[in-house]
Design a protein that fits this description.
Helices cover 45% and strands 20% of the residues. By secondary structure, the chain is an alpha/beta fold. It has a single domain, classed as 3-Layer(aba) Sandwich (Rossmann fold). It has a 7-stranded mixed sheet with strand order 3-2-1-4-5-7-6, with helices on both faces. Strand 4, helix 5 and strand 5 form a beta-alpha-beta unit. The termini are far apart. Bound molecules: S-adenosylmethionine. The site of S-adenosylmethionine (SAM) has 20 residues, from helix 2.
């Protein structure tokens, strides 16, 4: 599939992604904003196909503009809690859910990944893209994510662009992502790069004392699937 075809079939140009750290907004090009929307939506399709989720509640941690959770809700009818620490992106996520007709099933919530405001075993599915690299204490957040996951539920956390985009396009996107993070700060870039190493994920999972997991790594993506029995 050509890049233009993919864009035409999946993209809406109505919103802009704001990648934020706590203090400073990160400047990213319009092209990259669109590509990140596209990647989020395609990853949602992948999640839908892989886990066949049709009901229950899904939590999208560090949802940003909400595209992954919104797409998953459109495809499956599942209820989605769109959780982010940043108030500004959440209000945009709310508008995005409205414009895609899923505001009755998508609920924006401002909260911290390290202190999830839910009872034990309430979530059927927990997803998160591109956020773990910015968390203060990933093992602590992973423990809390595991706490709120239902038995036999599934967690899918990580970063990248999924399997559905062509590699040449992923290469271009990755180049732009790196540029944006590097321009933001050298420290943010170092943290982001380190976070994408498989050893970082292993260390976080071990510190979180989680053993039921599978790591998925390729040149563009790193994800962990966690289950609870
Ligand atoms: C790079 S953006 C990714 C957004 C979206 N998931 C995506 O893939 O386009 C990272 C997001 O994680 C959020 N975030 C960072 N630390 C967080 C925390 N401790 N709790 C909740 N959200 C957090 C940021 O506000 C930001 O929206």
């Amino acid at each position: 599939m050509e890049k233009r075809e993919i864009e035409q079939s999946l993209l809406t140009r109505q919103d802009a992604m704001i990648c934020s750290s706590r203090e400073k907004k990160m400047a990213i090009s319009d092209w990259l904003k669109e590509m990140l929307v596209l990647a989020n939506r395609l990853i949602a399709r992948e999640i839908f196909e892989r886990y066949c989720v049709n009901d229950g509640v899904c939590l999208d941690v560090g949802c940003g503009l909400g595209w992954m959770g919104i797409e998953l809700s459109r495809l499956s009818g599942i209820q989605v809690v769109l959780l982010d620490i940043n108030r500004d992106v959440l209000s945009k996520a709310r508008l995005n859910a409205c414009s895609h007709g899923v505001n009755v099933r998508c609920f924006p919530l401002r909260a911290d990944a390290h202190h999830l405001p839910f009872r034990e075993e309430t979530m059927n599915l927990i997803i998160s893209r591109g956020s773990i690299f910015f968390w203060e204490d990933p093992p602590k957040a992973l423990r809390d994510i595991h706490r709120v996951l239902k038995k036999n539920g599934m967690v899918f956390i990580g970063g990248g662009f999924g399997r559905k985009l062509p590699s040449n396009l992923k290469k271009e996107i990755l180049r732009e992502v790196k540029k944006a993070i590097r321009n933001h700060s050298a420290e943010a870039f170092k943290k982001w790069k380190k976070g994408r190493e498989i050893e970082s994920f292993r260390k976080w999972l071990s510190e979180a004392k989680l053993s039921c997991y599978r790591l998925i790594k390729d040149p563009f993506d790193i994800w962990v699937e966690i289950t609870k029995t």
